[in-house]
Design goal:
Elements lengths: L8 H18 L11 H12 L3 H11 L3 H9 L6 H10 L1 H50 L22 H13 L1
Helix pairs in contact: 1-5, 2-5, 5-6
């Protein structure tokens, strides 16, 4: 391809490892800051491989680095990249235990949040029921409320009274003769 630069396999491996670490970070796997450096690298490599050459070669294949580069990292003549230290950390028992602990803690936090929300829903439901009961009680006492809120008769149930017998007779007869 014209205009494209070739990337060395070691540089490509480093970029891939960095992307993996970024993905792990995005997925909420937190890597402690002490998991980087020569001492941590040796600790994680020893735990994973028990410093057996055939196991170290398998790790080199997995990390896509040469065996000579790994020997330089082990000898301390070259600093292991942060991405390799973090990858070894997450493969070691320390990283797995951290992942399990974080998953347990996240589950516990979510469980507590769900219970708090359920309690809040129960409280709000009780408040709503009380408010509905108060409104129903007010409607029964005062009857329908028509009109504007600042009216002097707002919410006051009009008195219903029966007309006097003579008044009812008078109304009927007046309509009849006119």
């Amino acid at each position: 391809m014209r205009g494209c630069r070739r990337i060395s396999s070691e540089r490509l491996s480093h970029l891939i490892n960095m992307i993996v670490i970024e993905v792990l970070t995005i997925q909420n796997y937190r890597t402690p800051s002490h998991a980087w450096g020569h001492g941590s690298f040796i600790l994680f490599l020893t735990e994973i491989t028990a410093m057996r050459p055939e196991a170290i070669k398998r790790v080199c294949t997995w990390l896509d680095i040469s065996y000579k580069t790994m020997q330089r990292y082990v000898a301390g003549t070259a600093h292991p990249p942060r991405s390799i230290c973090f990858a070894l950390f997450h493969e070691s028992s320390y990283g797995r235990q951290l992942g399990f602990a974080e998953a347990y803690n996240d589950r516990d936090i979510l469980f507590r949040q769900i219970n708090a929300l359920r309690a809040e829903v129960r409280t709000l439901t009780a408040s709503l029921t009380d408010a509905q009961a108060m409104l129903a009680d007010a409607a029964n006492k005062n009857g329908p409320t028509n009109g504007v809120a600042n009216d002097s008769n707002y919410g006051v149930k009009p008195l219903t009274r029966k007309h006097h017998a003579f008044t009812a007779f008078k109304r009927r007869t007046v309509r009849r003769f006119h």
